[in-house]
Specification:
Keywords: Cell outer membrane, Membrane, Repeat, Signal, Transmembrane, Transmembrane beta strand. Pfam families: Omp85, POTRA. There is one protein chain. This protein has 12 helices and 40 strands. It has 804 residues and is of the alpha+beta class. It has 7 domains: 39-105, Ubiquitin-like (UB roll); 108-182, Ubiquitin-like (UB roll); 188-273, Roll (Ubiquitin-like (UB roll)); 292-356, Ubiquitin-like (UB roll), CATH 3.10.20; 361-432, Ubiquitin-like (UB roll); 435-548; 596-804, Beta Barrel (Porin), CATH 2.40.160.50. The strands form 10 sheets. The protein has a 16-stranded antiparallel beta sheet. β33 (699-700) and β34 (703-704) form a beta hairpin.
Length: 804
């Protein structure tokens, strides 16, 4: 029994010992696994690199020898290497104490090539894409470049353009990247439809917005290119259009642009809700600031009870009141308009409340985004500067001024807290746009000193060298005319709102008279705003005029016909012993022989301008009156007084009928013994249509000799042409003119003079106006209703149009 017990004890001990050994083995294995998860790196081996140095790869992993690393550390190192853009593939694994990093390097871009593009130049595309030569090639970046090129073509009106990218191998593990472009056709705007508009027709609203339906001359004007940003801007333009015409409840329900791939054209539908039209009810000014009497400020208001409501008038009244209060010494006074809308009677009462606002100062003006325009060009449009009292109204007024410069695509003004509670930082964010223009214009004219086809080439820069200066160089050419002009304007002379500049010109003409005319001259000018609508100008002018041709002039008989000799026309000059016969007028002949003349003068004028649009006015008043005094040297001594005015009124919003009343007058008086004949006024179709250039007024033997006085008036109505799309830019006109040119100075007793006394001429007619890509052109048919026998008439006339 004892032997058996001993055996059992031995077996039990052996089993226990085996269990302890197994447990120990498991513990050792777990410890080994833990050490593998966080092993020490003794060496980092880099494989597959060709251009990138191995030490660079090691540094990029951010793993150091002697460091315990985990799988997460290895994954992070791989991610960092991928993020450099240097590698197309990265693999890393640990073998014992060695971390092995395998890399496949991206190929280096040798060259970037664009194929198939003509509308957008290579230089423009290169600035759009991120892929560039001598940089690693990245497939995802190249695909992003494809999308960027497509977006650029969409902005140029080619939504169906296609772009693909491919690579071509080059020597030294390099690659050429090729963007294949199919530009496609221009994506046109087929139609623009308005839904819900009753007060204004589709045609009128199409004139308001900037987007246009594709037409005959769209390829020149390029205003039929759909752009979502332009559509959003047009929405705001429509809102302001309605708000300024009494429709305070107006809203845009939706604006949708649908692309028809089969026609490659957009169909735009703008749905609006006009609401009712409002007029002003009671208009009051209430002041809670001691010392400010609201009633004394009523003259600053543009809003009057009974007038049609206009958001623009409210804004202008707000600015006027703010300026008036600030100029009275209340820098922190705040003007707030409060409206009370009567939905039943469709009136809006306005109460302008003047309160004492919080005391806040402008800490600084911070200008951002201007890459070309100098900071001071932007700063000078603000009536507030660092240290001044902060005024939100004046800040917004400056924003409108900056937008009016046409230097920027967008202007955003915001504020941020300053370093103290009463300090404000004004942030001005701008986006530059092109301010240079190359223009080619042409037309046909039958008025003025030139007649026949004419053309002009010009280069204009509105923001010269980013200084806000205006420069224009132009040259004009006609069958018998030449003109050359250079103009420069500094809008802020001596740091003030004084527009100073100069003009230089030369004109050569031999088409409309029996004698050549050559003028060389220039002017130094200065203009200063007195109010927002009133401007004063002063200028010094100098010109030299030569009449006739030193090489000889063909002789004419008393009826104006050329005299033909045995070998051709007979020529003469002033040096001939016989009296020259340039024209049938001895007065003109003598003046020609006495040329060249020089005129040195000073001129000054006042201009009042409230037109709503300077290029295409529908409402407002324009008036200008001034004098020119000659005699500061030169050959001429006279005082010339002129004035002109035009009043525009939109007679019908629905039918877009525009009425215009215009008038003018002038007088020239000698300051010395004699007034040169060429210092007279020469008038014709420029004051009464239906007459030739120099077609009315005093004449000697049938030749115009001008007059010392003139007066004219006209009435005109313009309208859209029925059944013709307004996108073509045509308008019709009906007009009536009246005027006269009369008076002579010291030559009343000359032989053969007619028309020195006042005699009224009148005409009526119709016209066709075309807002062409080359400028506004016009053709008129006018029938003279009152004239003298010696006048020269011309029923049809062609030329460039001027509205005022």
């Amino acid at each position: 029994m004892k032997a058996g017990s001993k055996l059992m004890s031995a077996l039990s001990a052996a089993a226990l010992s085996s269990t302890v050994l197994a447990a120990s083995a498991i513990s050792i294995q777990l410890a080994t696994l833990s050490e593998a998860d966080a092993a020490v790196v003794n060496r980092i081996e880099v494989r597959g690199n060709q251009r990138v140095d191995a030490d660079t790869v090691r540094n990029l992993t951010q793993i150091r020898t002697g460091q315990n690393i985990t799988d997460a550390d290895v994954d992070a190192a791989v991610t960092r290497l991928f993020a450099t853009g240097l590698f197309s593939d990265v693999r890393a694994n640990q073998s014992g104490g060695t971390l092995v990093v395998n890399v496949d390097e991206n190929q280096i871009v040798s060259d970037v090539v664009f194929q198939g593009n003509s509308r957008i130049k290579n230089e423009q595309l290169q600035s759009i894409v991120q892929t560039s030569s001598r940089q690693p090639y990245n497939a995802s970046t190249a695909q992003a470049d494809v999308d960027a090129i497509k977006a650029a073509y969409v902005r140029t009106g080619r939504s169906d353009a296609t772009v693909t990218v491919r690579t071509l191998p080059a020597e030294g593990n390099r690659v050429n990247v090729v963007f294949d472009i199919n530009e496609g056709d221009r994506t046109k705007i087929d139609t623009i439809n308005f839904v819900g508009n009753n007060a204004f027709g589709d045609g009128r609203l199409k004139e308001v917005i900037s987007l246009r339906e594709s037409g005959l001359f769209s390829f020149l004007q390029k205003n039929d290119i759909y752009d979502e940003d332009r559509l959003r801007a047009d929405e705001e333009t429509l809102r302001r259009f309605y708000f300024n015409r009494g429709y305070a409840d107006f809203r845009i329900v939706s604006s949708v642009a649908e692309l028809d791939p089969t026609k490659n054209a957009y169909f735009i539908t703008i749905t609006v809700e006009e609401g009712e039209r409002y007029v002003y009810g009671n208009v009051n000014i209430d002041s809670t600031v001691p010392g400010i009497d609201g009633e004394t400020l009523r003259g600053e208001l543009k809003t009057k009870s009974g007038d049609t409501y206009s958001a623009e008038d409210v804004e202008e009244s707000l600015v006027n009141l703010t300026n008036a209060v600030a100029n009275s010494g209340y820098a922190f006074a705040q003007v707030t308009p409060r409206g009370d809308r009567d939905f039943t009677n469709h009136t809006i009462s306005i109460n302008y409340v003047i309160d004492q606002g919080p005391r806040a100062y402008v800490e600084r003006l911070e200008i951002r985004g201007n890459t070309k325009t100098r900071d001071y060009v932007i700063r000078r449009e603000f009536d507030v500067s660092e240290g001044d009292a902060f005024n939100q109204v004046l800040v917004q007024r400056a924003k409108k001024r900056l937008e009016g410069l046409r230097f920027f695509k967008s202007v955003n003004v915001s504020t941020a807290p300053g370093s103290e509670p009463d300090r404000v930082i004004v942030i001005v964010q701008v986006e530059e746009q092109s301010t240079g223009e190359f223009s080619i214009g042409g037309g046909y004219t039958t008025g003025g000193e030139s007649s026949g086809p004419v053309a002009e080439i010009g280069i204009t820069e509105r923001n010269f060298l980013g200084r806000g200066q205006f420069v224009k160089v132009s040259a004009g050419f006609g069958e018998d005319t030449r003109s050359y002009n250079l103009s420069f304007t500094e809008p802020y002379f001596l740091g003030r709102r004084l527009a100073a500049g100069f003009d230089l010109y030369r004109t050569e003409n031999s088409s409309s008279t029996a004698y050549d005319i050559v003028r060389n001259g220039g002017a130094l000018r200065l203009a200063a705003p007195i109010t927002e609508d009133l401007t004063a100008q002063v200028a010094y002018n100098y010109k030299q005029e030569t009449f006739g041709d030193d090489q000889g002039i063909a002789l004419r008989d008393a009826t104006g016909n050329f005299i033909l000799g045995p070998t051709g026309y007979i020529f003469t000059t002033c040096a001939d012993p016989i009296a020259p016969l340039y024209t049938a007028s001895p007065i003109i002949n003598q003046a020609i022989c006495d040329s060249p003349y020089s005129t040195s003068s000073v001129s000054y004028a006042l201009t009042y301008n409230t037109l709503d649009n300077q290029q295409d006015p529908r409402n407002g008043f324009f008036a200008q009156a001034g004098q020119e005094v000659a005699g500061l040297g030169g050959d001429a001594q006279f005082i010339r007084t002129t004035g002109r005015a035009s009043y525009f009124s939109l007679l019908s919003e629905e039918y877009d009928l525009i009425g215009q009343l215009s008038g003018g007058a002038g007088n020239v008086t000698a300051l010395g013994d004699d007034l040169r004949v060429f210092d007279n006024f020469f008038k014709g179709q420029d004051i009464v249509r239906g007459f030739k250039y120099q077609g009315l007024g005093p004449r000697q033997n049938g030749v115009a000799i001008g007059g010392t006085n003139y007066v004219n008036a006209s009435a005109e109505v313009t309208f859209p042409l029925p059944l013709v799309s307004r996108d073509f830019g045509f308008r019709g006109a009906a007009f009536a003119d009246a005027g006269s040119l009369w008076g002579l100075d010291n030559i009343e007793n000359e032989f053969g003079i007619q028309g020195e006394d006042f005699s009224l001429r009148a005409s009526a007619g119709i016209g066709l106006i075309w807002a062409s890509p080359f400028g506004p052109l016009r053709v008129n048919y006018a029938q003279p209703l009152a004239k003298e026998d010696f006048d020269r008439t011309q029923e049809f006339s062609f030329g460039f149009s001027s509205r005022f």
